[in-house]
Amino acid sequence: MLGFDPGAKGAAHPPEEAALAGSAAGMVTRAIISPFDVLKIRFQLQIESLSSQRPKGKYWGLFQASRCIHSEEGLSAFWKGHVPAQTLSICFGAVQFASFQLLTEAVHKSTAYDSQTAGVLFVCGGLAACSATVVCQPLDILRTRFAAQGEPKVYRNMRHAVSTMCRSEGVLTFYRGLSPTLMAVFPYAGLQFFFYNVFKNLLAPLAKSGNSGGSLTSLVSGGGAGMISKAITYPFDLIKKRLQVGGFEAARLHFGQVRSYSGVVDCMVQIAKEEGVHGFFKGLSPSLLKAALSTGFTFFWYELFLNVVRDLRRRRRTDDLTKDLEER
After folding, report:
1. For residue 67, what are the contacts with CB-CB under 8 A and spacing of at least 6?
2. Of 6, 9, 7, which Cα lies nearest the Cα of 307?
3. Is the whole model's pTM more than 0.90, yes or no?
């Protein structure tokens, strides 16, 4: 189980082990799902309709957009912004899972609630993701800008991007869109942990061991949890992306129309007025696919790496004990 599990055999995982497993899981998962993230961001930032029947914008479908990006920018374009994105995933995974471990343990030991109940998993999962978001928001801004820019590139590398943004837009630009991000990430992450636990319990009888880390059960449970959570909270993610590229309009002119927003409310009003209700769900298809893969693989790799760390700890203790006995 994720988080502090009072019924688990042996000692509970310390936060540092959860951080290590979380960062490793984030790193591996990011390398796999990066192309879907680039497609999702391109769709989210496009003002024009994404309809294939009335194609007005640059992109109007998954396969069309993939071919367009590949022909114009090359295969490497699907990993644009991969360095900040990879750094983001490693950092976010470490902070999120370590915080979740600490929070669930604190709730179980200091309150009357069980750490594995649905409500506790939802609240602790949301708070853990919020703490990781505040820490990693600058990296998310950089990842979005790199994925959004076309050719010629505005930013040559991470160092150039940071210096340019600080000089032209100020330090606070690294926290653009933080409000809608926190509004979205709390329910999104909370629902992820909640539904993951639900699916894991439902699928446990079908697995050889319902709690075995890195199992197919973890992958399927995480995938289902990711899709449901993303579908519910998607509009907030789109608004966040629109706000994050504020002040970056010049680099997106050849993609189509661009807009400037003064805040969350102004962004919502403009989207509703110009693009309609469907505008809040642009890029939903690649986003659901990405969410299923991302969440599924994140939980899959997290439990796998956590078990590896646990086995190494047990082996080290056994070796130390054997050594002590031999010395005596």
Report:
1. none
2. 9
3. no
Residue 122 CA to residue 130 CA, distance in Å, equals 12
Of 3, 287, 1, give the one whose Cα is nearest residue 125.
Answer: 3
Q: How many CB atoms neighbour CB 314 within 10 A?
A: 12
Instruction: Tell me: pLDDT of 258 over 90.
Output: no
Q: Give the pLDDT mean for 46-71.
A: 78
Residue 294 buriedness (CB in 10 A; 0-12 / 13-18 / 19+): buried
Q: pLDDT confidence of 249, banded at 50, 70, 90?
A: low
DSSP H or E stretch at residue 134: helix 118-148
User: pLDDT digit string (tens) for 149-176?
Assistant: 766 777 888 888 889 889 988 888 888 8
Give the pLDDT score at 210. 47
Q: What is the DSSP string of 275-320?
A: H-GGGGGTTHHHHHHHHHHHHHHHHHHHHHHHHHHHHHHHHHHHHH
Nearest partner of 282 among 262, 299, 257, judged by Cα:
257
Q: Locate 52 and state its tokens.
A: 């294939």
CB atoms within 10 A of CB 91: 19
DSSP label at 84? H
Give the whole-angstrom CA distance, residue 21 versus residue 303: 8
Query: Exposed (0-12), middle (13-18) or buried (19+): which is 265, by Cβ within 10 Å?
Result: exposed
